[in-house]
């Protein structure tokens, strides 16, 4: 069972709220005791929704092909995301992705849902555990400027009674060197969990297929938020934040995501249930989030500021 912080309203709980007529992009305008019904953002069944999350179109921030190009262009990941998030061709994306520079050729895929869930885990640690994510950097070696730091992080589980998961983040830029630009897309980790694989037809895809793609999960994103916080607060070092490959939501985007999960039902004619209503699946949430980005723009959705949003650790995740 999920810990309370991660529990969203059930369909039955949502149906007891007051129904209002509005589109899901207006979800932040409704109250917590209201809900809306909309068409499915992803038109398809649960199997095709899973396939979409695996094979659907990705948002592609500018690709860099060589270390020298990255060092010369001096673009931070957030600058490249801003550009890509500003010119979306519709909302039908399963993630954004980036390619590492070097031997490891696995494409990194990041879904916005995982970015939101990573932020939720990070807020949970700070607000419920009243602690910080455990971060242990191994960054004293001389090669750190070129190869990045290896950092062991410990991230709590969202399930009651389950132990924390401990893993190593690798190739993390922590030094203000020209190489930081070439290093940022090499983000890697030795973490493994169900969220990193796509379950299709009740079995996991073959390892050969999955070896080409590195799906980033909420645990890795939460761990990396811990790294950002550690370097900023312990060392006044902004490089891990500046070079972060993960889109950090604004409070307003968190509010939107909360409404999608707690105040939103989908009328799906393909359902056999009498009311034809269901909660959104991951593909619905992902598409709704891209639609939100398309309407609000990059900065209002995934570029938090201290003045408006405050610290991501203190975001309001209450339903
Ligand atoms: Zn994970």
Radius of gyration, in angstroms, nearest whole number: 20 Å
Strand content: 15-25%
Mean pLDDT: 92
Shape: globular
Strands, count: 14
The arrangement of helices and strands along the chain is HEEHEHHEEHEHEEHEEEHEHHHEEHHH
Distance between the termini: 18 Å
Can you count the helices? Answer: 14
Give, in spatial order, the strands making up the sheet with the most strands: 1-2-13-14
pLDDT < 50 stretches: none
User: In this structure, how is the largest beta sheet organized?
Assistant: 4 strands, mixed
Domain count: the total is 1
How would you describe the overall organization of this protein?
The chain is of the alpha/beta class and 319 residues long. It has one domain (4-313). 37% of the residues lie in helices and 16% in strands. The strands form four sheets. Strands 1-2-13-14 form a four-stranded mixed sheet. Strands 3-4-5-12 form a four-stranded mixed sheet. A hairpin with a 2-residue loop joins strand 10 and strand 11 (203-204). It is globular and about 65 Å long. The model has no long low-confidence stretch (mean pLDDT 92). Bound molecules: zinc ion (ZN). Zinc ion is lined by residues 191, 193, 195-196, 217, 219. Zinc ion binds at residues 191, 193, 195-196, 217, 219.
């Amino acid at each position: 069972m999920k810990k309370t912080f991660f529990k969203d309203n059930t369909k039955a709980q949502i149906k007891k709220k007051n129904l209002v007529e509005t589109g899901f992009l207006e979800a932040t305008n409704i109250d917590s005791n209201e809900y809306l019904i909309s068409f499915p953002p992803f038109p398809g069944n649960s199997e095709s929704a899973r396939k979409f999350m695996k094979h659907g179109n990705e948002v592609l921030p500018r690709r860099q092909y060589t270390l020298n190009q990255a060092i010369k262009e001096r673009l931070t990941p957030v600058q490249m995301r801003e550009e890509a998030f500003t010119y979306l061709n519709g909302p039908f994306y399963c993630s954004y992705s980036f390619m590492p520079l070097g031997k490891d050729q696995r494409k990194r895929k990041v879904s916005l849902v995982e970015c939101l869930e990573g932020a939720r885990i990070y807020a949970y640690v700070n607000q419920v555990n009243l602690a910080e994510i455990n971060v242990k950097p191994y960054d004293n070696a001389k090669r750190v400027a070129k190869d990045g730091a290896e950092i062991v992080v410990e991230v709590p589980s969202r399930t009651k009674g389950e132990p924390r998961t401990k893993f190593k983040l690798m190739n993390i830029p922590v030094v203000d060197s020209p190489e930081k630009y070439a290093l940022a897309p090499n983000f890697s980790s030795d973490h493994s969990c169900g969220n990193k694989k796509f379950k299709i037809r009740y079995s996991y895809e073959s390892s050969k297929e999955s070896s080409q793609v590195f799906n980033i999960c909420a645990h890795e994103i939460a761990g990396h938020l811990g790294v950002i916080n550690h370097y900023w607060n312990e060392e006044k070092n902004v490089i891990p934040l500046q070079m972060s490959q993960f889109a950090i939501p604004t409070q307003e985007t968190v509010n939107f995501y909360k409404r999608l999960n707690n105040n939103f039902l989908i009328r799906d004619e393909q359902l056999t249930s009498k009311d034809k209503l269901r909660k959104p699946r991951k593909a619905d949430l992902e598409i709704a989030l891209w639609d939100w980005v398309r309407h609000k723009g990059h900065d209002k959705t995934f570029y938090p500021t201290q003045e408006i949003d405050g610290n991501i650790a203190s975001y309001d995740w209450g339903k």
